[in-house]
Amino acid sequence: MPGRGPGGGAFTDHLRITEGDGLNPRTYSLRDALCAPRLVRAFGAHDVLSAVIGSRAGFEAIWASGFGVSAAMGLPDLSLLGLSDQLTAASAMAAACQVPVLADVDGGFGGRLNVAHTVQMYERAGIAGICIEDKQFPKTNSFVPDRQRLLSADEFAARLEVAKRAQRHSDFVVVARTEALICDEKVEEALRRAHQYVDAGADAILVHSKSRRPDQITDFLKQWQKRAAVVAVPTTYYSWPVEEAWEAGVSMIIYANHGIRAAMRRIAEVADEIVRSGSSATVEPTIATMDEVFEATGLQGWLALDGDDR
Ligand code: SPV
Ligand code: MG
Known about the structure:
310 residues; alpha/beta; TIM Barrel; eight-stranded parallel β-barrel; 8 strands; 41% helix; 12% strand; globular; binds magnesium ion
């Protein structure tokens, strides 16, 4: 039975087609999720606890956010962290979550062989897939104005070919992210690049936009004709309802940075309130209990492992 892409159309053969309508979180792969006849929502995580919270909330996937992992270490998203730091963070998320993790690897941490090494290290760590972007190293977060430098499409396509050759397991997913629109290129250039990247072996395309409305993405999708699964990141066009995104042809939506932004604001509010009021009494009912933290971190399981002879 052929799978059905977003908006009801059939995908071409870039992704394995799965049967059934549901997604069992214990068994589905990211590849299954991208083929499923429903939109996949990914929660951007900056650490293990935020990944666990996102998966428990019902997100079908976790985005190991380069921006989030950097910010959690007190660093801006400027390629300051390398493969080891990002891999450590993403693999810990994958180990703790029941849903697949798509890891943000920026440009792949260097040239073609660094991309190959990245693929193999992430695969070995049990991560479902990586997303590589077509920007020059060192990259700057997509929302920093006037600092965006695209990599040539030919060089990026060559990196994708190397990535797919380096991959050992057929289920591992390589998402090619084009930053053409972030770099003020036209939708036609994003499309040209996306076609070249799928020709090079990419399993799915992430087309990033800084527009306040989803117009560039819908324009892209109309012309794309569902050639491969498309991933969107509505950080700036955040009012786009998931139903409309699905109807327009999006397979996966990433809420990339909401966890770290929520945590930052809330921690600041709690810290300010304790300093202001002279005790933690007023914040106590508004924050997680110690038992909730014990539960989320699997305390009882760890104690059971230790036996009862203490
Ligand atoms: C990230 O979360 O690191 C991303 C998405 O790459 S964004 O910051 O929106 O570019
Ligand atoms: Mg990133």
